[in-house]
Structures are given as structure tokens and as C-alpha cells.
Amino acid sequence: MPIESRSRRALHANLLVACTLLACGKVDRTPAAKDVIPERYRFLTQGMVMATDELRQSMPFDRIELSTSNPWAVSPVSVSAKPGTVSPVSYGQLCYLIERIGFESMNPRYEWGGYDATTMIVKVWRVGSEQPITVEDYGGVGPPDLWTLRAAILAVAAERD
Description:
alpha+beta, five-stranded mixed beta sheet
């Protein structure tokens, strides 16, 4: 293929891409709602944070817990995080993640169709509530946001060890 023909094709391709981009309209550069950090979590982006009663009281959750049960395991795993037992930044990050992923509106149970799988249970207690918000995941088939939350809880719990 002659160089002139290749150049013409490349020019046409570039024009097609440019027209397509123009047809899509202006790209909105304003932050998405999920990118705007709520006021109570601004301390997460401000560097040095001191554990204070005011900071602990601003958190919307009293306790965050992850437990697993497996029919073949000798002992189930159970970890929890509470204000004062882990760093304020780590606890704040967990609280922010819980709100950001919409944990409270997730299905209460995700279930794999097989049997003999591990059940992972995340429980979150809102401040002043005696009943937790519970999401069970039998077989690990829940949404990726739930996987992320479980990994974050395990990481924060490992900080204490």
C-alpha cells in the first residue's frame, strides 16, 4: 500500500475519532458524587489525626465485624473493629467505605448454588442500634464491593496484631 494511501486512511481515522468525540459533547469534569468526601470524613485527607472523643463520636457506626464459618474448618474466623481499638484513620476509612458502597442497601444474603462452602458474614452496628445490619455471603458470590469491604476489615484487624 503506498504511503499516500496510508496517510489518507490515518487522516480519515483521526477525523472520525475527532467527530465522534465532538458528537459526544463536552466532558464533564465536575467531581462525581462519590468523589466528594463528606464533611465527617475530611480528616482522612488532612494528614496527622489525633484520636479524640469528638472524632469517635462523629463516626456513624459503633462496631464492624466479619466472621466466617466453614463446615470443614476447625475454628471459625471472627474479627471486629470498634472505635478506640484501631487507629481513628483506619476506623474512619472503614466507615466511609461502608457508606460509599451502599452496604446498608445490599441484599441481606448472597448464595452460591452449591454446598459445603464458606459463609462470610459482615455485621455493622449503627450508633445507638442494638441490631446489626447483616450481609451474608455463602460461597463468595456477593458483589465486588462486599469483597473489598471484607478485605478492608481483615486489614484493619491485622493492624492490632
